[in-house]
Amino acid sequence: MNMQTQVNKNPRILLAEDDKALGEIVKRNLESIGYQVEHCVDGEDAWAEFQKKRYDLLLLDIVMPKKNGFQLAKEVRSKNTLVPIFFLSAEKTMDADRLDGFRLGADGYIVKPFSLLELQRRVKAFLKWTRPPKSELLIGHVVGEHTFNYRKMKVYPKDNQTAYVATFSPTEAKLLRYFLNRPNIIIKKDELLMKLWGRDDVTSSRSMDVFIGKIRKQMKLEPRLNLETIFNVGMRLNVPKDFILQKITIPLSNTAIQ
């Protein structure tokens, strides 16, 4: 059992922010609504702290002394591919840098200056998906001749759970799960943005488009699936009626990722 993947009763957040005043404001605000927050003022301290405890979400400033947010995220992902990572970035951060962050395994950006209410909403929206208050947890789908496992973030042949044929990131897992759980239903783009990103703006829309392109590649394993873009409306996953699409769930009392 991996200690860092167990579910905490009260979500624990690791905040890496070198601006001490801002960090303390964010820490107190998130603690006021029930989160446990550990604040570190440089990347090295944050990396050391990450290795001591399990965390449900990471908020990482990009520009920090000793180890920047991108370097820290890379090290985190070398040890844990599941914990959600959000970068706290300046508005002037270049699109190319944002894409580099997504390639490192980031799940999103929160652009400074941000309101504390916006931060709360985005954190709540993401943890609602990763820590759903239900008796069962949806951990995968059997999709035709393949199994999409959201916890291991791998695609396996349906009858072989040892040799995977593809991998995906935490954010791709969210999107795959959202679409596969709603076959043949039109999903509006603003719904996707609010449900999975916690906000509906240009930056989030661009990042979502990047991840949509990535999950299309995963879906190519099953050619009969068709993720259709409906102009000015949203998207729909077209699934034939005779196609095997089956949920895989487990009781929430057994939430340790293998």
Automatic annotation (TrEMBL):
CDD domains (UniProt xref): REC_OmpR, trans_reg_C
DNA-binding region as annotated in the record: 134-239
Family matches, as Pfam families: Response_reg, Trans_reg_C
UniProt-listed GO biological process terms: regulation of DNA-templated transcription
Domain named OmpR/PhoB-type: residues: 134-239
4-aspartylphosphate PTM positions: D61
Entries under PANTHER family matching the protein: PHOSPHATE REGULON TRANSCRIPTIONAL REGULATORY PROTEIN PHOB, REGULATOR OF RPOS
Listed GO MF terms: phosphorelay response regulator activity; transcription cis-regulatory region binding
Protein name (record): DNA-binding response regulator
Assigned GO CC terms: cytosol; protein-DNA complex
Lineage per the UniProt record: Bacteria, Pseudomonadati, Bacteroidota, Chitinophagia, Chitinophagales
Domain of life: Bacteria
Secretion signal, residue range per the UniProt entry: none
Alphabetic keyword roster: DNA-binding, Phosphoprotein, Two-component regulatory system
Organism the protein comes from: Chitinophaga flava
Domain Response regulatory: 12-127
